[in-house]
Predict the structure.
Amino acid sequence: MTAVRILGIVAGIGLFLMAVRAYERRRISRLNLIVVTLLGTALVVLSLRPSVYDPVFNWFDIVPGAERRVIFVLVIGVLLLFFLVLRLQSGSDTNDRGLRLLVEALGSERFDWDRAAAFPEGRRIVVILPAYNEQESVGDVVRAIPRELEGRQVIPVVVSDGSDDATARRARDAGALVTELPIRRGGGLALRVGYEIALQLDAEIVVTMDADGQHLPSELPVMLRPIVDGSADYVNGSRILGEFERESLLRHLGVHLFARIVTVLTGRRITDPSSGYRAARAELLQRFVLEEDQFWTSEILIEALRHRARVVEVPVTIVARAGGESKKPASLRYGWSFSKVIVQTWLR
């Protein structure tokens, strides 16, 4: 038996075993299991008894010799598997989008609308704080947010991203309006829920900041000033222009690398695309197309530049988190995922 036939047998058995394992984990349907099983069986039969397929080979004019028939079937099998993977991916994307929309709808429904109705009418600034298990710091951050700035009422909104601690309760006790997402999906989805709520609250300006204490509420006037005086539509807080407590050399280098990538792709000099301290006119946010559940900071910035918004960077201070643990993945994984989001958003 030749090496090609042995490879065909191994490939057929391997496909079957992988399909069974995926089916047991409920990653594929029974129909997909049957299809893959048939493909694997056909490949094994071909490797053992090629003569069974003589009618098919003759129809395609595939003559015997040099393992042409086995190679032909391997190619056909790869093409069939390719289309099967596309089918699976399409179904996965559809399910993921449905889940995303469901979580966003539940987040809006669970918001403190009754408490929000008690706030006085008038011009409003909404500060959104996505939070996952930030019970140690969220209360202090909310209390430090001034309740009035630039003649506008400031309303803190905490979006608890599937937290399983006291984050939501401590945020409410500190005076924030809160919504709780049923499962954790990432800061990007939490932010989209916050944006939708801010628009329904008739916000004039929407600010985003971290709930872990790394962003200083005392610097809100700096973030708001370019929008209030009419010189900007979108403000990005930059640690490079201001001050920061460096977490690690690798992450520090990453900030500069991401800044360079965004600058080259957009033609606008950006110094800190990974900063979560942002401010934007509410009317601008209505035009954004946001899809990322994680690593969202670059997506929002590039969307602002895509819509030719007047983007201004201002110096801010980023300090070490006040408590709890960082939710960011390992540096290399974070860097790869962040870079991928930058490119994907730019290619839309």
Remarks:
- The CA atoms of residues 287 and 307 lie 8 Å apart.
